[in-house]
Design a protein that fits this description.
alpha+beta; Chorismate lyase; 6-stranded antiparallel sheet; 9 helices; 8 strands; 32% helix; globular
Length: 236
C-alpha cells in the first residue's frame, strides 16, 4: 500500500476513534511529517484523500479541521435510504437492467477514494434503474472485492445497500456527494428516453459504512425531470 494511503488511513482512524475531535484542528503539518517520517508532498496527498471524503477541511490561516462524526454518532444515524428502499416504502417497484458486470482495477482517483491501491480489484458494474416502468438513472459503481468478496451479478440487479446489510451486518450510513449537470450522450438518450438537447443530472458519491470504511464509489446520471434531492444541513 502506498505510504500516503497508509497515513490517510491512520489519520482517519484517529478521527473515527475520537482522538481527533470534530470541529478541532489536527496537529500541524510539520508535526505529522515528523511523526510519519514523510515529506510534505506525501502528507498533502494523504490529507487530500480525507478532504475529498469529507473527513476534514483545510482553511488558509486556520489549519486542518475535523469535519466528520465519531463512530458513535455514525452508528446512531439511520441507514441511507437508497433508491430501492425509498421507493418501495411508497409501494413502487424498483428494478434494474444490467449493462455491464466484471472485476477490474479501478482508475487511480477512484482507488484513492475507496482507500485502495491500484493493484487491488473492485467489482465494476453499470445498470439502469427503473421506478415502475420509468427509467430513473444510469449508475456506474465500484466496490472493493476485499470488502464484498461474495458480491454477485444477481446482487447487482437488486439493492446493493440491502446486500451489504445482510452480508456484512454493517450499515451504509454516510456519503460524500457532488452534484452537477451534463449534456446527455447517446446512451443516456436511449436508456433514459431523453431528447438530444436535454441534460442529465449527475451525482458522484462515495458511501461509507458505519465503521467509517468507504465501500462504494458510484456515478449516477438521472433523467433531469425525475431527479430530486433533499438535504438537511446542520451547523455544529
Amino acid at each position: 500500500m502506498r505510504r500516503y494511503i497508509q497515513i490517510s488511513n491512520i489519520i482517519k482512524e484517529r478521527i473515527l476513534s475520537g482522538e481527533y475531535i470534530t470541529g478541532e484542528k489536527i496537529p500541524y503539518g510539520h508535526q505529522l511529517c515528523a511523526e510519519f517520517a514523510c515529506s510534505k508532498i506525501t502528507l498533502n496527498n494523504a490529507l487530500d484523500i480525507l478532504v475529498q471524503a469529507g473527513f476534514i477541511t483545510r482553511q488558509r490561516g486556520l489549519g486542518t479541521i475535523v469535519k466528520t462524526a465519531s463512530p458513535q454518532q455514525l452508528s446512531a444515524h439511520s441507514p441511507i435510504q437508497g433508491v430501492s428502499r425509498l421507493h418501495e416504502s411508497q409501494g413502487v417497484e424498483v428494478h434494474s437492467h444490467l449493462l455491464h458486470f466484471d472485476i477490474a482495477f479501478p482508475p487511480g482517483e477512484i482507488a484513492s477514494q475507496l482507500a485502495m491501491t491500484q493493484d487491488q480489484y473492485a467489482w465494476h458494474f453499470r445498470r439502469v434503474r427503473y421506478v415502475g416502468n420509468d427509467p430513473l438513472s444510469i449508475e456506474e459503481t465500484w466496490i472493493p472485492v476485499k470488502i464484498l468478496p461474495d458480491f454477485t451479478r444477481q446482487a447487482a440487479l437488486g439493492s446493493v445497500y440491502l446486500f451489504v446489510e445482510q452480508s456484512l451486518k454493517k450499515i451504509p450510513c454516510s456519503s460524500h456527494t457532488q452534484f452537477y449537470s451534463l449534456p446527455s450522450d447517446r446512451e443516456a438518450q436511449e436508456w433514459l428516453k431523453l431528447q438530444v438537447n436535454e441534460p442529465v443530472s449527475v451525482t458522484l458519491s462515495v458511501t461509507y459504512l458505519n465503521d467509517g470504511q468507504p465501500f462504494e464509489f458510484c456515478t449516477s446520471r438521472y433523467h433531469y425531470q425525475r431527479f430530486n434531492y433533499n438535504a438537511v444541513v446542520q451547523r455544529n
